[in-house]
Amino acid sequence: MTKERTAAVTRDEVRVDRWCVIAAPASAFRWGRYGSYEPITPLWGKLLAKLRAEREAHLASEEHSYGYRGHCRLCGRLGPPPEVYLAKGWRSESRRECNVCGTEYLSFWRTRSGRCSDACWRAAKKAIKVPVTLRMLAAKKARRAAGRAGHKCAVCEAELTSLRSTRQYCSVKCRVAACRARKKAR
Predict the structure, then answer these.
(1) How far is the C-alpha of 116 from the C-alpha of 119, rounded, in Å?
(2) CA 107 – CA 9 distance, rounded (Å)
């Protein structure tokens, strides 16, 4: 039998979506009577109080004002944000291992992110997305440069150096000359 956790749950250990805790460390729960995990209440008090304070600060802030059709300009929700709460439905199949840090965590039954907390979410996004995006942009730039290489002016046969692969003429003079030649040929 594993030893029960005694340290309080911190904001860095959980994933919060619109004031609802949707992923948390497995050690902050115990197997309940009704076939699902139940939070160990004393471990959650400080975190829930902190989240409630964040919510109240959000409601009191100047940015929290209702714009078009009653949506909050800061968080995008319709009407005031809901109360802070722990999601219900922590089932046995919701026990997972974080893809980033390897921590065992429980995920609310609708979420399948593979990350145990907001900190791991940010770390994964920073570690994975930025290099992939930079590589994709570099590859796209190389493909476009290859597509533009070797193009010559349709009138004077001069080498074209342009940003567009569809450019046909090197100057306005050549473009006008080609237009006049087409009109004369009709």
Answers:
(1) 8
(2) 15
